[in-house]
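Exercise 7. Predict the structure of DUF433 domain-containing protein from Funiculus sociatus GB2-A5.
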Amino acid sequence: MENNLLQRITLNPEICHGKPCIRGLRYPVEFILELLSSGMTIDDILEDYDDLEAADILAALAFATRLTQVKSIHRVVQ
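Solution. The predicted structure, encoded as tokens:
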């Protein structure tokens, strides 16, 4: 199921400067994550943005999860 969700995330240099977006729409993944982190629920987002679907929100979360799955993080000292 996660792979199906991740197919909703598109990368196109012509849309939002190539940021990962939802289904080629001008909704960057980071925007969806900002809405969620501000306290909006999935239902709130869907009510405000009628061209989005619940699976789009879940896709943004799945994409963010993949980005954070690293083996380790090393501090860069400057």
